[in-house]
Amino acid sequence: MAAPRTLAFLALFGVSSSRSSECSYNGLLNHLNLTNPDRILQIRRPVKDWTSATLVQLDMVMFGILDTNEKSQTVTSHNWIEMQWTNEFLTWNSSDFCGIDTLSFPRSMVWIPDINIQEDASDGGSAQMDPVVIIRPSGLTSTTARQRLTFTCQFRLFMFPFDKQHCNITFSSMSADARSIVLGSVKNGTTITRISEQVMITQGEWQLNSMQIVKENMTDGQLITSKLTYMVTLERKPLLYVIILIVPLFYLLILDLASFFICEAGGEKLGFKVTILLSISVLLLILKDILPSTENGLPLIAMYCISVFTMVWLSVLEAMLISLLLHLEDSLGKKAQGSADTPADIQLEAKSQKEPPGVEEKGRFEAGKRCFPLDRPCDRDLLQLILDDVRASRQLAASQAKDQRKPGCYSKLAKVIDSVFFVCYFLTVLVFLFYMCISWI
Ligand SMILES: *[C@@H]1O[C@H](CO)[C@@H](O)[C@H](O)[C@H]1NC(C)=O
Ligand SMILES: *[C@@H]1O[C@H](CO)[C@@H](O)[C@H](O)[C@H]1NC(C)=O
Ligand SMILES: *[C@@H]1O[C@H](CO)[C@@H](O)[C@H](O)[C@H]1NC(C)=O
Questions:
Q1: Is residue 38 pLDDT above 90, yes or no?
Q2: What distance in angstroms lies between residue 168's CA and the mean position of ligand 2's atoms?
């Protein structure tokens, strides 16, 4: 009688104790042999048959593009990386344990694949690993990391600032080959791009165009390693550079064209052109801070700047030539005047000595005739004065006409050079701007 009762009691106790152990994490941890830490779990790849490879799946979402540095050819981004793989030793049946379907414990307790990023150029403290790993009944283990990732990217700046950059972020295992670790991803490129676009907060001057995922095996002699490449395409928003570089240079070029219409006197034209040249060199300094000093494939913008600079430089030289010619003309003209002055004066004096007697006599006679009845002898002097004035102004007009009739050969040359240069310059500017437009758009 006592035996069955004891049995029943024991059975009841057993059931209740087994239920209590199943519903707590301890039972599960005991079942998984994690209570007395097994170093084996940490050091071996968690597969039962060593010839089967572990599939490590990596998903990377980009939260932001914080900075790009064209000079050092790096991009700094803010990423979130989820990594998951299967641990064949840590499995349980969740119905045996009150339906526990996730378990988390410190990452130091289990094996974690040593995946790194080849293009990574960040300093050590920039990655923040999740301190725990999460495991599911099937043995699927996952861990996440948030990283301020600075990765190298070979910028192709030919089309700057209307450029698109293709950067690779390549994941691979540092030590394991493709027989033990194979990389893959859960989500495809389109999904990753969509998620990234949704969560992206900062992207500065860049627009995330697409992220594609490429899986491949790299062979290096005997060693075959599995690689997972995220091909990220970024597109620059060019507005800032259009405002600070392209448009000002264009305006300066137009100003230089317009300066051909400034009148030559006073050397203002030359001064103005030199000022334009100085402004362009300031813009060149800005450009110097942006572009890397690479010799292969000069970017179009550098060509644009240097062409504008050269054209304005040529037009400054031309203005100097013109002003030199005009100066020569001036000094020659003065000399000619200086040498021609004496005969003219002599002639004038001879004339005034020759002519006046007749005129004076006539004038005196006429004046006397007229003056007599009026009885005002002062009129004679007045008439004499007027006559002198008329004579002087006639001589002045004659000498001016002589000057206009005979412009020196230097000023003629200067005029011809100026017009020919202006036409050539204008055509060159037109062709150049047209070429720039074609190449950029
Ligand atoms: C836990 O360890 C025992 C013996 O130490 C072993 O029989 C059992 O299979 C291990 N359990 C797991 C899940 O590895
Ligand atoms: C990025 O990776 C892909 C695939 O491996 C390769 O074809 C491409 O040339 C790489 N691009 C750069 C810029 O390295
Ligand atoms: C790379 O090699 C592994 C093992 O040889 C293989 O399982 C995997 O399918 C290969 N991956 C590609 C992309 O060829």
A1: no
A2: 6
Which two structure tokens, joined as six digits, stand for 151?
């990765």
Residues forming a β-bridge with 210 = 233
CATH of domain 27-237: 2.70.170.10
CATH number listed for the domain at residues 241-337+413-440: 1.20.58.390
Strand partners, 227: 172, 216
**Whole-model pTM?**
0.74
Q: Tell me which residue has its CA closest to atom 5 in ligand 1.
A: 33
Q: Whose CA is nearest to atom 12 of ligand 1?
A: 32
- Atom 8 of ligand 2, residue of closest alpha carbon: 168
Count how many residues are written for the chain.
441
Nearest CA to ligand 3 atom 7: 182
Report domain extents, the chain. 27-237, 241-337+413-440, 340-405
pLDDT per residue over 55-112, tens digit each? 999 999 999 999 899 888 999 999 999 999 999 989 999 888 888 899 998 988 899 9
Ligand 1-lining residues (CB < 6 angstroms): 32-33, 89
Residue 33 CA: which ligand 1 atom is closest?
1
Tokens of 414: 């200067």
Residue of 226, 227, 229 with the most ligand 3 atoms within 8 Å of its CB, for mutation: 226
The pocket around ligand 3, CB under 6 angstroms, is made up of: 53, 178-179, 182, 215-217, 226
Report DSSP letters for 211-260, one per residue.
EEEEEEEEEETTEEEEEEEEEEEEEE--HHHIIIIIHHHHHHHHHHHHGG
At 312, the pLDDT band (50, 70, 90 cuts) reads: very high
Start-end of H helices in 1-101: 2-23, 25-31, 39-43
**More reliable by pLDDT, 440 or 185:** 185
Q: What is the mean pLDDT of residues 274-280?
A: 93
N-terminal to C-terminal alpha carbon distance within the chain: 99
Judge if the beta carbon of residue 168 lies within 6 A of ligand 2.
Answer: yes
Q: Output the CA torsion sign for 34, 39, 42, 47.
A: negative
Q: Which ligand is nearest to the CA of 51?
A: 3
Among 116-120, 214-218, 343-347, the range scoring the smallest mean pLDDT is: 343-347
Among 65, 78, 245, smallest CA distance to 165 is for 65
Largest CA distance in the chain: 183
Mutate to test the pocket of ligand 3, among 50, 217, 224 (most ligand atoms within 8 A of CB): 217
